[in-house]
Amino acid sequence: MTDSVRDALRAEVVDDAFTLAAYPESETPFISSKDDAKDGLDDMEDALFDLHEMMFAAKERAVLLVLQGTDASGKNGTIKHVVRLVNPAGVKIASFGEPTEEEKQHHFLWRIKREVPGPGMLGVFDRSHYEDVLVPIAEQTLDDDTVAERFEEIRSFEADLVDRGVTVVKCLLHISYDEQRERFLRRLRRHDKRWKFRESDLDTRRLWDRYRLAYGRVVQETSTEDAPWYIVPSDHKWYRNWAVARLLIESWEDMDLSYPQPDLDLDALRAALEDPA
Ligand code: AMP
Ligand code: MG
To answer: What's the whole-model pTM score?
Structure first.
């Protein structure tokens, strides 16, 4: 068996078909308990920090972490628990809500391209360009040709990112219908969580099956060799955090990173520093 979390969680598109229903939301590959996951994440802290710092220092490569998932799937939780473990100076986080009037005047990738991480940066998308296919497919507001065109544009946009040295890590935070109910109820119960709840979240929940199918279609159309989707079982928050941390580490390990070593005459520089002013 592989010990690569990327291999274990990569979406399997077979004969151009992908079935999200085949992926359990509460399984926890490689991890046996909450404590196990928490210890694992603690053990990854130094590696996460160092690898990201090396990429930040070298300013050559970049990572774009795309977090997609329904309401309460844990996009913000992942940022709070995983992304916070790296140097914030090297992170660029963008949240994409319903397009503003200005954004609607532009191509759907316009607002996305402005947030792409530059060299050295970890970019995090809390929702993304995928909303521009998910919502219209689920809500049936765009014709098939336009949707197909958007898929093509997304594939070529991401291929271009990869060509420019940006590793694209696309995570579908996969939660069950029941778990979403529990999380919504918790949001309603807790005075410090209620702000996250919007009544329109229930409209989206009513379209659960349609969104499921839309997600399946999105994965099928846009899981490419260079920018695959990872289906992250997310009913357990501790597993989700552990898994996303591993996906980042494995992506950085592939880059063969090290701290830049500038060619300096250390003795001369030290001597210069000894000199009284
Ligand atoms: P939240 O992530 O809870 O702040 O919610 C953001 C809302 O904006 C969700 O209901 C998304 O589906 C919606 N949204 C984000 N991007 C788009 C888009 N491009 N088109 C339509 N709705 C979107
Ligand atoms: Mg929401």
So the answer is: 0.97
